[in-house]
Amino acid sequence: MLAGVYDSIFALSPNAPSALALFAGDPLAHLHALDVAVIAIYFAMVIWIGFYLKGLANTSEEFFMAGREMTAWIAGLSFVSANLGSLELMGWAGSTYQYGILAAHWYWIGAIPAMLFLGMVMMPFYYVCRTHSVPGYLKLRYGQGASVVSAVSFALMTVLMSGVNMFAMAEVMRVVLGWDLNFSIVVSSLAVAAYVALGGLRSAIFNEVLQFVLIWAGALLVPILGLVEAGGWSGLKARIARNVAEGIIPAGDYTHMWRSMGHFSSNPMGIHWTGIVFGLGFAISFGYWTTDFLVVQRVLSADNLRSARMAPIIGSFFKMAVPFIVILPGLLGLAMLKNPDGTPMVLVGQDQVSALHPHSYNEVLPLMMVRYLGPGLLGLGITALIAGFMSGMAGNVSAFSAVWTYDIYQPLIVKNAPDSHYVSVGRWATILGVIVSIGTAYMVMSAHGIMDYVQALFSFFISPLLGVVLMGMFWKRGTRAGGFWGLLIGTLASIGLWAWVKVDPSALRYVALSRDAKSMAEDMYRALWSVSVAVIVTFAVSLFGRPRPVEELNGLVYGATRLPAEPPAPFWKSEWFWTAVAILLLVVVNIIFW
Amino acid sequence: MHSARISIWFFIGVLLAVYGAMILGYGIFSLASGETASVALANLHAPVWWGALLAALGLFYLVKFRPRAGKK
Lengths: 594, 72
What we know:
The structure holds two protein chains of two kinds. By secondary structure, chain A is mainly α. Chain A has a single domain, classed as Sodium/glucose cotransporter (Up-down Bundle), CATH 1.20.1730. Chain A is built from 24 helices and no strands. Chain B starts with 7 loop residues before the first helix and ends in an 8-residue tail after the last helix. In chain B, helix 1 (8-33) runs antiparallel to helix 2 (46-64). The chains are: A mainly alpha, B mainly alpha.
C-alpha cells in the first residue's frame, strides 16, 4: 500500500545528485524564531506526556495494551494517526501532482471498506479472544507454527520500516529546512524512544492523537487559502484545465477518479479499475487495515467491544477527510504554484530536476506551505510533518515491542517469568527497536537500493496473512497445518512473482494481466494472487487434516463464537448506523468526483 | 501517584492554546506594525484568525478536561 509513497519519497534521497546539490545549500523554507519555538514546544510536550504516563505502565497489560481502557474516539484517532505518517502526507500530495485525483483511491476505496469490515466483522473475534496481537490470534487459531512465522516476519519488517521512516524524515528535513541528517535522526529517535519506553502503548496512543490534531492544525490552512486564491473548486478545475491547454502541465484528466479506469493505458497510473477494486480495495487494503498489527493494536486497546467496533468506524470518517489536506494541496500545486518572477512553477520527476525546474513533485506540500504560511504558521506546518513521522515511528516501535515480547520472547525464550519481567523486556525491546531502526536508517543512507527491498519485503507478508486470517475466522474446518502452509506458500508465491518480474520485466503481462500495467498495478495484482494462493492452500491442506472440535473455536471463528450481548443503545450510538453513514458518504464522494 | 489522571484532551488543549496565543500574538503584531510576511494572501491576515481559532479551541479543551481531584 505504501510502496508508491516510499517510491516517491525515496526520490528525495542523495541518489538523485542534481536536486540535492541544489537543496544542500538552499533549503525550501527558512524558519523564523517563532517557528523554532513552535517545534521546540512540541518536543517538550511529547516528552512530558511520556514521563507523565510512566506511572501508568507498570503491568504488561498496561504497557502493551494501554490497560485496554481507551475510548472509541481515542482508539479511532490513534488507529488513523498511526498510518498518517508524513510519508503519506508528502508522498501522496506529490502523487496527486503527478496523477491527479486518482491518488484519492488510496484514501477511499483503498481504506474505508477495509476499516468498516475490521470494525463490524473481524473486531469481535480479535477482541473476544483477548489476543494481544495478530500473531497471537494465529497462535490461538492455528497454533505456534503460523504464529511464529507471522511474528518473526512482522518484527523484522517493523523495525526495518521504522528505520526507513526515520531516514525519510531526516531526508525531508534536510531538503526542506537544510537540517543535518544525523541531527534529525538522533533527535527524533531519542524522543520516540523516551516516550514509548516510558509510557508504553498508552504513551504512543496519546502522542498519536496529539499528532493527529497537530497535523490538521498545521496542514488545513494550506487547502483553505489555496481554494480562496483559486476561486473555489470550480476555479481550481478551470485553472488546471487552462494550464493543461497551455502545455504548462502534462495533458490528463486530473479531477476525475473513475472515468479513465477503463484501460491500463488510458490513465497515467497504468491501472485498470479491476486492479483498483479487487487489488487495492480488497487484497492490499484489507491486508493492511485488518491484519497489520501496527494499526490493529490501537483498536485492541479499546475499553469494551462496542468501543473496539466503533474505533475503526470513527477512524473511517477522518480517513475519508484526509484527502482535503493531502490530495487538495497536490491539485492546488498544479494551478497555484508560482516562480519568484510570477510565472507558473512546474514540478517534475526527480530524474528531470534541473536549473530550469529545480523542484520535484515530492516537494509540492512543503512548497505550498511556504507559499501560504508565514512565521508561526510555517512552524506549525513543519511540526505537523515531524509529528507525522514520529507517530509512524512510534507505531512501529510499540507494535514491535509487543510482538517481540508476547509472540517471540515469551513462547520461545523465557516462558514463565513474572509479569514485571515482561514489562522490562518490553521497555528494552522498545529501545532495541529504536537502535535497530537507527542502524537501518544509516544502512539505507549508505546503500539506497536496500529501501526498495525493505518495502517489497513488507508487502510480501501482508496479503497472504489476510488470506489465512480470513480462512481462520470464517471457516471452522481450517486446520493448524492449513494455516501454516497457507501463510508460508502464500508468502513464497508473493516473493516468487516479485522476483519473476525483476528477472524478466515482460512477465508483467502475466502478473498484472497487461503489458501496459505499471508498478502500482503490479503491486495490486501481486497482492491479489498471493491472497488467493494463501486461501487455496489453506483450504486444500485443511481438507486432508482433522479439524479442531468446534468447542475449542469459541471466540475465534464465525459460527462457533458466542458474542457477549451488548447493552442497548439509541440508533445514533449504534455502530451499524455509523457504518451505513460511512458507506453512504463513500458512495457520494466517489460519485461527485467520478 | 496520580491523584487525578490527566486526559489526552487536556494535553491537546495546552498545546493548541499555547500555539494559538503565539500565532495570534504574531498576527496582531504584524497587523499593527504593518510588517506582513511575504506570503500569498498575506492581506487575509491568516495568523490572526487561525491563531484565534486555535487558542479558542485550546482554551475550550483546557477548561473542559482540566484535571480534577478524584475524577479520571
